[in-house]
Amino acid sequence: MDGEELTEQETALYDRQIRVWGADAQRRLSKSHILVCGMKGTVAEFCKNIVLAGVGSLTLMDDRVVTEEAWSANFLIPPDENVYGGKTIAEVCCDSLKDFNPMVRVSVEKGDLSSLDGEFYDKFDVVVKLINEKCRKLSKRVAFYTVDCRDSCGEIFVDLQNHKYSKEAISVPWRALPRKASKLYFALRGVFEEAEGRSPGEISIADLPAVLKLKKELCEANALNASHVTDSLLERLIIGTREFPPVCAVVGGILGQEVIKAISCKGEPLKNFFFFDVMDGKGVVEDVSNPKKESK
Amino acid sequence: MVSERQLEAIKIDMDTIEVSNLNRQFLFRQSHVGQSKAKVARDAVLKFRPQMSITAHHANVKDPKFNVEFFKQFNVVLNGLDNLDARRHVNRLCLAADVPLVESGTTGFLGQVTVHVKGKTECYECQPKPAPKTYPVCTITSTPSKFVHCIVWAKDLLFAKLFGDKNQENDLNVRSSDASSSAHAEDVFVRRKDEDIDQYGRRIYDHVFGYNIEVASSNEETWKNRNRPKPIYSADVMPENLTEQNGNVAKNCVVDTSSVSAMASLGLKNPQDTWTLLESSRIFLEALKLFFAKREKEIGNLSFDKDDQLAVEFVTAAANIRAASFGISLHSLFEAKGIAGNIVHAVATTNAIIAGLIVIEAIKVLLKDTDKYRMTYCLEHITKKMLLMPVEPYEPNKSCYVCSETPLSLEINTSRSKLRDFVEKIVKAKLGINFPLIMHGSNLLYEVGDDLDEVEVANYAANLEKVLSQLPSPVTNGTMLTVEDLQQELTCNINIKHREEFDEEKEPDGMLLSGWTQAPPAKDDKQSMNDKQSIGNGGDSSNALQTEPADAVKDGEMEEISEPSGKKRKLSEGSKASILDATDGTRNHKEVEKLDDDDDDDDDVVMFDDLDSMTNKKKRLQ
């Protein structure tokens, strides 16, 4: 796998995709190392995509035990207790993923992102995590992706330079943000959770009235028409915690493409926020990076 | 009612699994190579959704058993096909059965999902689809200017001549104007009894790359405005005795044909390398040798298969030598294989995105959420800030002969054109009706079927050879012909207009069909205008003088991704469809998934989900 030329086996297996991105890109892929934290449905889809693409290695982190919610949206977990009993989500997914492409090294790492040090991160080219994972600053060369799917929506946040979970991005002045509810939602949620001292993503239906109140206040304070942020969207996003499998497939696909682009250095990476909503069917890209921010 | 719903699916696919599928068709594993796609897919899905009922058919969706009655069982049909012919076929059956169809396709990073509901939206054929690419015969046999022309020559002419059915007509020597030399030419390609294989190889080489080129070169008219090709003789390229150079072709060792390779024999390992003229020539001779040494039994029956390594090597080598002759750049085996095999490039991510979108549309259909149907385009580059662009479906095209049954017009010389011409060039090639019934009023002029008696068959055969105005029920100016396909339940009326003359260049078929537009094929050089007939990449050589058979060239399943034309009206907002429930409201609702590949390209996999929880979710949100 690490020779300069692709092996005969690789050429045969990857023929159709080599015709898309070329042999050089394929070689780069085969030398790349990906770290993934939080194996929800979308992330499972993403893992499937990059394993099929032929990355060098994939490391999974998710110590949670398997529940019905887990296997209902994660096709890597068979609904069979004989198979998943006693194992963590990461372990079950690892077994399934190895099957997809024996040429990729898939492994499990216990613990969570916040407990890891810089040396550990340095081994990776790409890190993919869920919104509710906190992590420390990583080395500069690592590409960093945050993903979340809830209900009929999904989002991807791309960060190829700055590696903090980007509270900074959402503290951009509202007037500077494009007028899209999704961004405002993100902002709103971040602000709300900041205020309440909770982890990102831990919001639930009980919080809805408070969120709506907050939205009204913030809109007034920033002289923004409140109707830009539709209550129904906020409601959907707060209430619906479960993933919708077709959305997982779509977002996992887009994320897969982005990571492949970053590793292979082929194609323009999206900058820097992608949002998909089944209700309007649009897959939108927004730039929410803070123009005043300096890259670190 | 929602909670009682059972999910049933039927899956149809005629294809078996190949290694090159595995980079994206993730329900399959290495150990499944060679097995039926429909069956393996079914087993794989059952592993993560054991409560589903899935029936797998290892069959061609065009099989008559999948008739209108069959289609009527379903609430929705999902297509993951890779050729235009099958798509049109399913489209017609869905219209006849009044079942919504979710169509889709991908190529590389591009993809789209479209929804088709009879009477409410355009059908799949309302917007003309690009015709598969064809090349003029003369370009292939005499004046190639692109590498693809050399490939078509190498594959459909030379390879077919040497290894294919000897009884097939072949244009390989069409440039020989002298009749006697044609007869002589017949013998040239056959290996003489006890002829030494190396000698035979060089003889063939010299004939097609040397002698034939010299003959062609002598025609002044052809080369007035073009660069003359250079004849190439083996002695000039490879002066040494070959048997000393090449690898071992031990006659007595039993070799698995799939591993027989000229490249391996000559130590050329990398399929991405572009061979030189010398290397191509060596491969040419070595491949020829290997066919005779190891695969003699197959000679005379072989057709080109892109997964046949030796065939691909031979074709690449031959195309390269011809290219060298005509000053066209040579290509690697990898590239040549893609062209010769009409390979569609494909990745897992685009397929995953499109699969997700298919399911989203399918759920809308099942929930009869008519206003929400969308055509969704997956773009390679961000356009108007979008990577996924939804568009509302358009209303049916009133002049679509498939779903609106608008009559067409045909200009034709009724005293000169035969019924056979009409059937081949219009009915089959343009209308996609392969099992037609042709009537003039109540008179049956032609039909196909298993239940015809000898007299009828003879009658129809005789009719084919008659010119239109001489048919038992004469077809002249003003006649209305009715063409039907019983399986597709399609009826098409054609008004005949007699016309004396046709432009040989612009209307080579001698007919003009209007009232329905077929989109022109992708742009080719000007030469295509100057030649009477065309040859397709992939058509067998017996059809060399006609447009290629419908399934020969795999369509790229990509209509233009540029914005759909704005000239048709969109489905108006707020119009609720009163769709009659095709089922009788029983508890079992079925869905159909079709994966019918003539080739391995782009099998879309649709992931079924537990419909109950989906619909429950939706209800909660309202």
Automatic annotation (TrEMBL), chain A:
Protein name: SUMO-activating enzyme subunit 1A
Organism: Citrus sinensis (Sweet orange)
UniProtKB/TrEMBL annotation, chain B:
Family note: Belongs to the ubiquitin-activating E1 family.
Ranges for domain THIF-type NAD/FAD binding fold: 12-401
Residues involved in Zn(2+) binding: 123, 126, 400, 403
Pathway where this protein functions: Protein modification; protein sumoylation
Biological process, per Gene Ontology: protein sumoylation
Residue runs in coiled coils: none
Biological source species: Citrus sinensis (Sweet orange)
Biased composition (Polar residues): 530-546
Catalytic residues in the record: 138
Bias-annotated ranges (Acidic residues): 594-603
Protein name per its UniProtKB record: SUMO-activating enzyme subunit
Domain Ubiquitin/SUMO-activating enzyme ubiquitin-like: 410-502
Region (Disordered): 499-603
Domain Ubiquitin-activating enzyme SCCH: start-end pairs: 293-337
